[in-house]
Amino acid sequence: MMISMLCPALIVLICFLSDEIGFIQCPEARYNRSPIVLLENKLGVESWCVKFLLPYVHNKLLLYRQRKHWLDREALVDITCTLLLLNPDFTTAWNVRKELLQCGALSPERDLYLGKLTLTKFPKSPETWIHRRWVLQQILNRFPAVGHHKILLRREAEVEVADAEITQHANDHLAQIILQEMMVCADAASRYPSNYNAWSHRIWVLRHMAQGNSKVFHDELSSLRLWVSMHVSDHSGFHYRQFLLKELITDLNLGPELWSNSGPQKQASSSPDSSYLVDQLFYQEMEFCSDLILSFPGHEALWSHRRHVFYLWHQWKEHHRDCSSSRDSQLKHLSELEDQGRSCLSRHGHGSVLMEVDLVSLEDPEEEKKLRGVLPPGVLNLPAEHLFVSSLLDSCCSHEQRSLALAYRKWLDMVIGVQS
Q1: Higher pLDDT, 273 or 129
Q2: Which of 155, 292, 328, 346 is 20 to 30 Å from 141 by CA-CA measure?
Q3: pTM value surpassing 0.90
Q4: Integer Cα distance of 306 and 302 in angstroms
Q5: 126: left (phi > 0), else alpha (psi -120 to 50), else beta?
Q6: What is the C-alpha separation between 319 and 264, in angstroms, rounded?
């Protein structure tokens, strides 16, 4: 019983000095020493004490929730911390910490640190990820209140300077939180293959904390190349890259709801510059996928990713073609109106009066594309994909690689070929 009373406080004292937790396999207490070990910032708990410690803190918390036993706030922090380090899927403990955080007895940063430490031992714990999102939402709710500081200042110049400093501080703090969350998610994804909860949390963070910030999405797409190259069988990592591509394409096309499971949903205006950038994104992703397929033959996740990226490109190209057709019809209508204007001017003796600005709409769109350096047509298309598959089959020796390549070619014919 003495160990049950001492361990909670001891774990709480040590856990915020460590960056990882684990259990030391030890069926029984062989020595008269503490079952808690801290070595090089790694926290270890001997397994024999868990069967005593976990029921103790569990029952104590339940008695508190049933109002049969009183605990002060500091004791609640210790009890819930110990319980969640041993069993992070105990929802009641997380709910108690929510209450402590709302009343100011617990800081959001400390709760995020506990979740980070818990995920080193239980990287797929759904309750931990859910609570982590709740804490982040509480932090986000503070940011809109920045403007309330205006009433404390009198002169207009002081207001502008103060708001700029406050906004910059908030942006820096938000960027630091996003970076920390990306590191936590990457660590959890490395500890548990195809960790759906970790990748879903990563998507949530970008959608709620970096929406509209293209640089963050570009950086994520670039930094993730190394990770997926080292985890070529992890479907979740490639699904995350597909999410990043969709978000970047939507942002470039200025259409917040451009993509869904069924394709383009909303007409969006795309300039030649944005079309070039989208082409570049798809081309680079397909080249990256080709390199991985050739370097690591026989992995289904790579072929599945290639199929999804090419289908996204095909959808975007069809949508872009429809937008171009609509724009061409508008230009044709403007040209007809211009001809009518010329004839009207000639009837009134002013045929030589033509403003230079009117000539801007008469430029050849193809010449404009050449000047802007758009990728030549045919870099990504159905014949090029067939050529890639054929060349791979000619030099392939792996049975798994041949099966996946043939399945991909069949998909190209039955899905893309029919829609083209």
Answers
A1: 129
A2: 155
A3: no
A4: 6
A5: alpha
A6: 7
